[in-house]
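SUBJECT: A protein chain and its fold
Encoding: whole-number codes for local backbone shapes
RECORD BEGINS BELOW THIS LINE
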Amino acid sequence: MNRRDYPYAPGARLQSPEPGGRDRLIEGASTDMDPLLDHRAAKGMTLLGLRGVGKTAVLHRLWRAASDKGIRTAKFEARARILTPA
């Protein structure tokens, strides 16, 4: 793919226009939410990757999938804090 057309360039709070080959990941994670509907434990998931590869875009789609299933979600953002010795 041409770099100019690549939709996953780093950009703060920009949504990627499409999942870009992540359909199976999103579908699998959405299916893994189903036990929650029966008040059972669900599988956990960790998204790892370099900045700009689409982790947040995937999370937004998973939040939407959870909401569509009637699962309540919470969204928060953790910020790093650098401690310096006194």
Remarks:
- The radius of gyration is 16 Å.
- Residues 19-69 form one domain.
- The chain has a mean pLDDT of 81.
